Structures are given as C-alpha cells and as structure tokens.
Fold these 4 entries.
Entry 1:
Amino acid sequence: MSESSEISILAKFGENEKFLNLNGAKKSEIKALAIGNFDGFHRAHQKLFDALGEHGGIIIVIADTAPKLTPPSLISQICEKEIFYCDLVRVKNLSGAEFIALLNANFPNLEKIVVGNDFKFGKNRASDAEFLRANFAGETLIIDEFKIDGVGVHTRLIKEFLNAGECEKAAQFLGREYEISGKVISGQGLGAKELFATLNLDASEFYMPKHGVYATLCRVKNKIYKSVSFIGHRVSTDSNFAIETHILGEFGANFTPKRASVKFIKFIRENKKFANLSELKAQISSDIALAREILGNKYER
C-alpha cells in the first residue's frame, strides 16, 4: 500500500499553518471560498464551486486519511480552482466565531463564503450555515440540497452505488464516470504468459468499488483505450489483492506506462474461484467479449 496523499499533505503543514496550498497561491487574492470535505467533487459540490466566481478558492477539510473518491491526485486534474487544505485536528477546538476570525485573518480580502445547507463547523460542529451568515461580515451564500429524481446527491450515496457495482448511477450523481488512477506496478507474472496481458495498478488512495470484473476505459498518457478490469483478491492464483486492466486491441510493442487510470463503465460479474488456469482463461475470454459488446462504438475516443 502506498502512503495516502492526505498523509503526505498533512506532513507539509508548517507549525502554525492552518490553510495549505500546494501551488503557492496567495491567500490575499482569494475573494470567495467554498468550505467542506468535498469527497467526490460531485454534482452537488459543483453547484457550490460554480458560485465562487473568478477569484474563488476551495477549502478541503481533511478529517481522516481513508481512501477517497477524489484524493488530491485526482482533484488536481478535474478542478481549476485553487485548493487550500485544512487539517481538522488543527481547528476542531475552535468555536464558530474563532473559525470565522481565522478565515478573515488568513484571507484578508474574503468577500463571500459558499456552503451547503447542511454545513456544520466549529467545536463539536455546534455552528451551522445560518450562524455563518449572521457572523461573517461578507456575503454567505447557502446552496440548497441538489437532487436528482428527488434524491439528494451525497458522497455517502455514491459510495453505496459503487459498493453495489452500480457504475451508471454513481456516474449520474458524480457528473462523470468514476475513475481511479495510480502507478503501474509488477503483477504476479501470469498474465502475459498464461492468461492475458494486464496493467497492474497501485491505486490505494482511491475508494474501491465492488470487487469483480468491469467493462472499463483505461487512460494512458491522455489516450483512452477500451478495457476490461478486475478488482479484488486473486482467489484462483495467489489470493493477493490486485487491480488489473486488460486493454482491448493494439497498443504498441513499447507500451510500458508508468501511470494509468481506469474509468468504470459497467459491472460484468462477481469475483469467483476457478479450478485451474484453463477455466480462468475461458472466463476472461467471455469477459473480454462482453466488455467489447458493452463498450461498443459509444466509447470510441
């Protein structure tokens, strides 16, 4: 398992630093802030971000270092706003008024704060969005719950969809296909010799969807390939956990990427144990055929 990016970021905080930006952005240039955990950067979160304007920034509160839907490595790819990280441990004992004062001290030109209607902050989460509106001198914009077909969009629900292998529902609420990425690592060596060649990923900072086989899209160096991917313990061979992606079609003899990402399109089947490699290979052949059918021409890139 690789070190989580949240742990890496926490290690970069100075002794008295409360809001850390990794790009050297000047806090004095920020005029609007959205504040929250924002795991997922989903469609409800985007409503907050859209309200920030040109000089807006986002404060992501790091409450734990568990795998995320959007760890920092992905946020940097999908968000153009300046990101400021806040370590919850450093601010959790502040009262609501003290936290507002801290914001004003760090962002001297702050004019607007954008939060969701369920926003809580301060010691014991005792302060809410209306407290912020009453005590912050600038504008407080409270965004109502965003719903799809009458259902509120929340990170918890997206994780439930992924836990059930419901990629399409997760994508609808995220506003994009769920994607994980990481370093390409060495596998057990059976793929190219006995089965099918795969890219093996270390994506341990990402939240893992249901274990099994998926029709996927693999992105390498900004090029998209149709693929079939496996997540889970290799119960038919060495029992180790793995993320393996087999790319459909030709990709060149010198195809040795250092990083890759996988977008989940549709769940194909549960993980299962096979009596021998011949049975496993036959099943993978069926998986590949079904993935080709699922992806079809819709995902030509």
Entry 2:
Amino acid sequence: MEPVIDQAFAAALYSDGDAGLDTGASLLAADPTADAELFRRGEEFVRRAWGRGWQPADVVRLVRRDLDETAAGLAAGLIVSGTARYERLSPRWQGQLDGLPAAPPRNRPDRFSYASAVLGLYRLLLQLPSIEPVGPPPGASPHGLHLPPAHDEPRMLTRIRALLAKAEATGFPEEAEALTTKAQELMARHSIDEALLAARTHSKEAPGACRIGVDAPYETAKAILLDAVAAANRCRAVWNSDLGFSTVVGFEPDLDAVELLYTSLLVQGTVAMAGAEAGQRAGGRKRTKTFRQSFLMAYAQRLGSRLASDTARVTAEAEAGTGSGAGPAGPGDPALLPVLAARDMAVTDTAERMFPETTTTRVRGATDLDGWTHGTAAADRARMGGNGPELRGGRGSR
C-alpha cells in the first residue's frame, strides 16, 4: 500500500485547489508516524531551492508575501535544521539565518491545521523558479562564484551602522541630515580605500552580488531608490518585480554599504512621509495613496541626483588629495581614477553576465504635487553630501 505521506503529497502538492490540501492534511493528521518523514521531505524541498539560486532570506520573504507569517516560520524552521549540518557558511548566509523568524510549534493549534499549513508551504517551494545565483549553496564548491571570506564586521561598517541608526532615531531633521551625510562620506571613502588597497596588493577579488527585498506597496519608487543607492556606491541593481527583490552586483564593501544605506533611507523616508501625510489629513485631505506614491517617487529621484553628486565630489577630493577624504591617497593619487574605472568595468561585466537580458520598466508619473513637494523636501533633509563635519576614513578598517 502506498505510504500515507505519498498519498497526502499526491493529493495536495500535485493537484490544484484547496480540496487537495484538505485531503492531504486529513491524511497526515490521522497518522502521527508520518511526522518525521514530513519534516525530512521539507528539508529536501529547501535544499532544492538552494540549487535553483535561492537563499534563506529570499525564501522566507516570498513565503511571507504569498502565504502568511506562520508559513514563513515553518520555512525558517526547515532552513535552520537543514543548514545545521554545515560547519561553515558564507557571512551573508549566516547573517540571513540570524534574522529568520522563530519556527512555530509543531502540530499547533491542531494536527489538521498544522499539516494544511505545511502542505501549502511545500506546494509553494516546489513552484519556485530558478533565479540567478549570488553565491554557492551550503556544501557546494565556491568555484566560479564569489564567496566573501568569513570575518568580523569591519570597524568602519560598525561606525556607519551606528550613524545611520542615530539618523533613524532622531526627531530632528537637521541632525538626521548631518548623521546620514557622515555615513555616506565614510562609505565613499572606505570604497576608495578598499579599491586602492586591492590594486596595490594585486587582489584577485571579483565582484559579488546580494539580493535586497523590494516590498509592496510603492515598490517601483523603492526600486528606484535602491538603484540610486547602488549606483552611488559603485554597484548595479537589477529589479525583479515579480519576485519582489533587486539583485545588487558589486564588490563586497560596496554591497555592505548599499544594504545599510538603502535600509536607512527607506526608514527615514517612511517616517518623513507619515509626518507629511498627517499634516495633510489635518488639513482635511483624504487622497493618501496618490500622496504617498508621489512622495516616495520624488524622494527617490531627488536622492539619486544628490548621491551621484556627492560620490563624484568625494572621489575628486581623494584624487586631488584635498578635503578630509584623501585617506591612503595622501597628497593625491593619480592611479585612483583608473583603479575605479577598472572596478566599474568589472561590476558591469559581472552584471551583464548574470543578466544578459533585461527590460526597462515604465514608471507611472507622479500625480500629486503636494506629495512630490514634500518628498523632495524630505530627500533634501536626508541628503548625502554638503559640508558635513570632517570625518577621516582610514585603511585597516577590517
């Protein structure tokens, strides 16, 4: 006789509709001896996802979006269990594992409900498409893929993280602006320091990649903001709107900077938008959706131009040995621009190999003048340049 778990899977995973899920869940609920095999097969479905290019945060993000928080916790439990056998994981994998939600108790609130949730999750896992890999899965050879070395967080990155956390927490726009300015200057100078050091030591480091979630609502504006942050930090971003993430390609220190800065600017923008919207509602206005969309579009586009300008300024200062950002270049380093150009070319080549076919997304125009005006003002308050307090980057920050 066919095992109960195979009967349940045939009913729930390889047929459409809720009726199949109910049939499969009923079979599993009536047979506690299938529990261990049910979990083992879930681990196998997760391993297959790794082979198709997915990583822990990608899986949980999609499960949460398409199912619910309970299913996200179930996926997290499978991921943690399935990766526990490996002695070493890449820093990005480990960081994603550390951020996973807790797994819910098994067979709660009852066996049928639990089995139904598990089968719904497995159905989704089986349908995951293949995506571009951004690093080797656990246990695989890193050959041909970028695997950053395991290390503690660089001191420079810790300082940047602290500055951005303060910018998010303060209630004073001027203070947030100054703190974010400091953080971006440190990022730009740190990137230059790393590029020059790699050139002088003939480092074989190649560009890598990471994925960053771009969640609804207003995902187009968020993708534009991420693209601007990536470009300003010498990276390339490619948005997959269907799966809800962008893949960012760049050298490891720059990828770290993009993740930190994008997350912080999104928080700052959301807080500013909520404040501006409250003022609009106090005046009797009710069209909040168009206001928010226009606000975030203006915020993203304004920051894009400011970020590009500030990166150019810091680079020019480092090349000339002027300002506070010369760092290891001393009185000016004529090799800087060729070094940066070579890295830009390497990033572009890697992105084009990973994504040989891309399309241009049509962006809906902003239709709310008040939202656009407030979004532009918020971007100015969070701007990345200007004459912020002097900060000195430095080599040896790792």
Entry 3:
Amino acid sequence: MAVVLVLRARGLGDLLTTVPALRALRRARPGDHIALAAPHRLKPIVDLIASVDEMVPIHDTVGLRWDGESPALAVNLDGTEGIAELSRTKPERILTYRNPAFPDLPGPEWQPEMHDVDRWCHLLESDGIAADRRNLGLVPPVASTSHRNAVVVHIGAGATARRWPADRFAAVVRHLLVQDRDVVVTGDESERETALGVATRAGLSSARVLAGQQNLIELAATVAEAALVVCGDTGVAHLATAFGTRTVLLFGPNPPSRSGPPPHLLGRHAVLWAGQTGDPDADDIDPGLLKIGVPEVVNAVDKQLRKRPWPGTGLDRRAQQTFRRVG
C-alpha cells in the first residue's frame, strides 16, 4: 500500500478550503494510505471530511515529524513554504506549486489572486487529478447542547487586523435582542473576556456567551444548526459555508475573492467588504474593515433573517449570492 503524505499546517479555515482537494485525492488513489499533517486541534473536523486514513499532528515549534516509510507522493497544500518539510520525509515525488528556492522541482506557478479552494484543486488538476470545487460540504456533528436557530455572533479572528470592533458587535447583538432573536456569542478561550464585554454592552445574559466554553466539535455543531452566523474572515465563516448556514461576513483586509465563500455557493452569504486590501496579520484593525459600519451589518442581518429558512443543511442552489461593497 503506497503512502500519500499531505501537508496542511495552518488553521481551521485553511483546512476547510482543502476539502475538495482532499476528496479528489481520495477518489484518485482509493487504495493508498493518505496521511494528513495538520495541527492536532483540527482532528474533529478532519474526521468529518472522511477522506484521510491517518492524521499526523504538527506543532508550531517543531513542525512536521514523520516516522513512517518514505511517501510515494507528498502533496504540499501549505503554500510554497512546506516544500522543505516534505523533502525531509524523502518522498518519491512532491506535488507542489513552484518555488524559486527549489528550481529543480516542477509544478504550476503560484497565483496570489486565486481563490484558496481553486488553488488546491488547480494543483491536483496539474497532476491529472480531477477535482470538484463544489465538494465542500460536511455532515453536521451532534453536540450535547443544542442552540438550534440561534444567531451566532462570532467576535474573534486569528489576527487583530481581521477583528471588527467589539462595541460594533455589541450594537448588532443589541439590535438582534430588540428583534427578539436568540443570540449566542462565540470565540476561543483567549477571546472570552471580549465576548463577555460584548454581552454586557448589549444586555445579553452571560449564559449566552459560549466563547471559551466549547470544544471545536461543539462550536461546529452550533454553527451547523444556527439560523445565521455573523463573523469576520475566520474559520467559523468556512464552517458555515461547509454546513450551508446563512452568514453575514465582514471582510478586510483580505478580499472575499480570495478567501470568501466560493461563487458557486449560491444564496447563503451576504459579504460586506470596503474594497481595499492590507496586511491580514497586522497588529491593528484593518482600516478597510473599520469602514464597515453597524448600519450596514444590521441591514444585511435583517435581510438574511427575512429569507425563508432552507430545510436541513443543504445548499440553496436557487438564489443568488450577495457580495455587497461598502463605502
């Protein structure tokens, strides 16, 4: 049995953009042993993808440790930086985008403006493996506590640049409470104090603050059964896409054309963007993100909630996706 080692060493959203590529690889090599190198915290979501035989945990400090046999194929779904790590596993062949530091290694040219889902499908297609960009969906997990039909307001993001101000999130939550909507506020453990502050400003009970209280599978279940998710450019946005949950997404500094819901997913997402790009890892809130005001978000939320609920978790193929430019 040949071993295929796939490197995807980033966060939740990055993992979810590779789902069509991972499934295409599984279809193309049904008899091979596919090992995915990714952070251990993502294992509950990797299990939902159902295309991987083994998960190899990687860590920020030590990177990839591979003790198995030399892979027949190493697939680099971690951009141009993962080539060195995969090379150390001594694979027979590496499938990757070109990197000037490895001039003898073939592969397609990296295209910075390409959507992340397209990027990884294109890589496989360059090797003759057909990939279906629409194959993004996940089966919703079941959690012990249900928050069915709540509006999920996710206040966090992986970097300060992508975090909309807490007082603005509070204003949106306050509006939802006036509309008699059930609201829960989510985020990771480091964002709990901010989430509690949002709840206090909005007049929301602290019992509705789930930030820091859920594991990844519980968060995924909450997103899957939500009436609507309001968040920035985060892994939670990608979870909502995977589960067919309606969203209002606040983009900046990355444009939605790179990391937003793929255009073929029709009718589920209202995407707000000021039209300017910047550093997604900056220590200050992106100026373009700050141009998105509370009135624009509240208007988008109201329009999304007025839409007829789509039965189950399937995608609404009949409607048109909304990309709304602010400013």
Entry 4:
Amino acid sequence: MSAQQVRDGFEELYGAAPEGVWAAPGRVNLIGEHTDYNDGFVMPFALPHTAIAAVSRREDDLLRLHSADVDGGVVEISTLEPGADTNWTAYPAGVVWALREAGHAVRGADIHLTSTVPSGAGLSSSAALEVVVALALNDLYELGLQRWQLARLCQRAENVYVGAPTGIMDQTASACCEEGHALFLDTRDLSQKQIPFDLASEGLRLLVVDTQVKHAHSEGEYGKRRAGCEEGAAILGVTALRDVPYAELDAALARIEDEEIRRLVKHVVTEDERVERVVALMQSGADAREIGPVLVEGHASLRDDFRISCPELDLVVDSSLAAGALGSRMTGGGFGGSAIVLAEEADVPGITKAVEEAFAAAGFTAPRVFEAVPAPGARRLV
C-alpha cells in the first residue's frame, strides 16, 4: 500500500487529511543473535517491507488506532496501563505510554496504519509499528528526540507495556539503518557504524525464507533464555556476557556447573566474536563469500547451544546448503520465523526450488522466499 493510499484511508476514516505520513521498516539480522540484551554486538539491516502510518494530533486525550489489515480501537491515553492490551494496538499505544512516562508532552492522536512486514516471521514487525508511531509523534509534537532515543523508548514500550523482554536491536535497526548498508551496533553504548553492504555488485544474493512458523517474543522460552544469560553473567561476576573475553571462554565455562547456563554463555560469547569477524571481513574489502561459513557456524550455535531453532528452520539451512548455498542460518528470536541464505545469483532459482521441495516432502507449510536488499530506515514520506 502506498503512502497516498494510507493518506486517503485516513481521510476516509477520520474526515480530514492527516498531518503527515511516515514509514518504518522491518529488519533482517545478518549476524548477532540474542546478543543485544547481553550488551553485545549485532549487525542488522532494514528491509523494504515497512509499517506506514498516517497521523494527526488531537486536542483531547483520545488515541484512535486503525489498521487497514485488522480491527483497531479507541482509548483515552490517561488510562493506558502496561499489560492491559493484548492486541496489536498494544505496540502503538505502548509508545504513547512510554513517551508520556518519560515526561514528553504528548496528547491524543488519530492514527491509521498498514504494514507489509510479515507478522511472526522474526523480521521485527512489532518494532516497525512502534518506531513509525514514535517518529510521527516526535515530529508532530516537536519533541526533538534523536533516533537512538526513540529506539530506547520503543524498547521500553515493548518490554514494559507489551511485556516482551526484547533487546534494543530491532527498534534501533528500524529507526537508524541506512539504504545500502548494514548497521554494526554496539548495544551497550548504542554506538553505530554503517557498513556498505552491496552483495549484488559481487554477483551474490541474500534470501529470506519465512518458514510461516509464527513466534512471539512475549512467550516464555525467550524470557527463560534472557534470564539464563543474566544468571551466567552473575556467576562470572560480570555486568553482562559481553564482558567475557572470547579468548577466556573455556576458563569461564569451567566455572559454570549448570549445563544449560554454560551453553547459553557459550553461544553469546562466540556470537559476539562472529559479529566482529564479519565486520572485519566487510571492512577489509574481502570477498563477501567468506561470510557464508560464519553464518553456518551461527546457526549451529543457535540450534545446539541456545536451542531456539525448529525443524523448519533447520530444514531451510540443510536443504539450501545441499543445493549450493554459500551460507545459511536462522535469523531473529527463534522458535520459528525466518532463515537467511547467502547464494550466488545464478544459484538462487535452484536453491529456492530445493527448499520448497524439501518443505513439501516434509509436509510443512510452503515457505515464503524473497530477496533481502538493505533499505532505508524510518522516515517521513509526506
């Protein structure tokens, strides 16, 4: 749906043109999974798939939320309370709550939304909803907040208002990514480095395979992993697992008796090292094909140590590699969602066919396959 269509939909709903139209993208994470809430390193980039919002301020305290895709609702912002809303409206409403809780003078708004970011696919559909609303209200109410500040507020909305214990990566990626680049983000201090990422110039493609297996960050297993990582850090006497040097990993693991905690620590420390390795490769001008084996390592760690893969994700990785992919791994929070596949351009049709046939043979729902090209971050459209 175009910005003009969303604008027209707003006018039809609310009887007047919106004050503006904004967009915020979903993201795919190249490398760095479950490191963000451990103060570690991540490397996402924005997708062309976006949440689009037409928004106008109101002079009262009513928040009217409407979606072109599902039913919305009306709420008085003074009654917003964490945990009270279990629908999609919790994400934009949570942003309003977080802004007001932080002392920003935000009143009511009329909001009409649509999104092309697949829900439950591990591509940050919720962060896109949060960021597009935050950016619109920041502009309309002239709050003067920086992109990283908006990301922090959106994370608080998701953590506290929605109840999903996510890290900062998704919101920062949606708010801050740049077209044609991957974002190297230090989640401790939010320092950023935009790394040029142009696979097409090397005859390569990065595919996203949406397994159609839905996941939800607010479900218990994600929270258990986060709590386990925090316990591991406490045992080792560090602020976060990011503080465990890769070179000292074996010694650190020897100090942890609980096997599950040991596996979680191993994944996070080795995953941070994999992010740094990929960044070094990309900045050195190395052939991007060298990233492939690092992706495979990452999947093995997520599957065997962090234990958040699923049969569908494993099948994408195994079938794509067997068909000639250079690298493949699950991406996102896990327990479903999507995998990424690095491939030669000429091999894409064969790999896509192999994955689809493997899913059919296993009796799984047909996957959705598309190419991922680094797109712009959040922005005003009209």
